[in-house]
Amino acid sequence: MDIRQLRYFLVIAEEGQISRAAGKLHMSQPPLSQQLRLMEEELGATLLERKRNGKSMELTETGKVLYEKAQGVLSLFEESMLEVKEVTEGIRGSLSFGVVPSCVSYLPKKIQEFNEKYPNVSFRIWGGDPYEIRKHLENRDIELAIIRLPLEGKDLTIVHIGKEPFVLVIPKEWESFHSKDSITLKEIGNIPLLLMHRTKGGGIYEIIIEEFNRINMKPNILCECPDVNILLSLIASNIGAGILPKTSIPPSVNKDIKVLDIKDTPLQSETALVWLKERYLSKAANRFIELFK
Fold it and tell me: How far apart are CA 233 and CA 240, in angstroms?
């Protein structure tokens, strides 16, 4: 069994059909089917079997074990090839990293600064909440990520970028707030709130709820959503107000919203650059990390 066969097997497993896998691999179906049979003969086990509908295939228990191992083998192989190539080619290629939408404001200046130093490196950016970004790191889709803490995991290296206060974001149409520059948490208590809520795990939502519990108040939560851009659109449309990290608000929405400081709470959000401890990082990734130190 070789690397090429492992690649074939992974694509078949992910596509669930020989025909779709062959199309993705730009090859005809019979040779691909033959490679799968050769792998099964070598291992003495069936790796994929047809579902009851007869149209698609699923992994057997043996296939599931090989699929997990093959992902690790191919990731290690690709990282090794990258390391070897970089010895002779220098800093070039593509840098893949993830970012939580509310942290995007940290990127423009860093990308511009990096591009001026290393013009032969392009970027591939993945978005998502911290849980989704962590999965991309584990799957080796990305090398680095910019997220908001907390993010669980002893397998991660964390570089703290900075802390910032939470602010109240309200529709500009709310005339009763026009004379205000700040507000207390108690005054926010009865306002319909649109809060950021992760897919899984703790985060901004839990921090805000804990702060309301501290002052013995139950917030009026109208909506929960993991995407800051959706929340800002709803706020601008006069649906409610949001408690968000200050840098998560892009200048493009300022004409439709008003931002108030929250003056009686220590609420803060912390942003960090993270990556997996055990994986090889490209030269481009290491140079990008240096921009944040």
Answer: 10
CB burial class (10 A; 0-12, 13-18, 19+) of residue 174?
middle
- At the second CATH level, the architecture of 3-85 is Orthogonal Bundle (1.10)
170-228 confidence digits (pLDDT tens):
999 998 888 999 999 999 988 999 998 876 656 788 889 999 999 999 999 999 998 89
Contacts of 83 (CB under 8 A, 6+ apart): 280
Which CATH fold topology does 161-270 show?
D-Maltodextrin-Binding Protein; domain 2 (3.40.190)
Per-residue pLDDT reduced to its tens digit, 61-85: 998 989 888 887 887 777 676 666 6
Q: Which of 270, 265, 130 is nearest to 189 (CA)?
A: 265
User: 3-85 and 87-159+271-290 share one CATH topology?
Assistant: no
Q: How do 93-99 and 57-59 pair as beta strands?
A: unpaired
Query: In three state form, how does the secondary structure of the chain look?
Result: CCHHHHHHHHHHHHHCCHHHHHHHHCCCHHHHHHHHHHHHHHHCCCCEEECCCCCCEEECHHHHHHHHHHHHHHHHHHHHHHHHHHHHHCCCEEEEEEECHHHHHHHHHHHHHHHHHCCCEEEEEEECCHHHHHHHHHCCCCCEEEEECCCCCCCEEEEEEEEEEEEEEEECCCHHHCCCCEECHHHHCCCCEEEECCCCCCCHHHHHHHHHHHCCCCCCEEEEECCHHHHHHHHHCCCCEEEEEHHHCCHHHCCCEEEEEECCCCCEEEEEEEEECCCCCCHHHHHHHHCCC
Q: Name the residue ranges covered by the structural domains of the chain.
A: 3-85, 87-159+271-290, 161-270
What architecture is domain 87-159+271-290?
A: 3-Layer(aba) Sandwich (3.40)
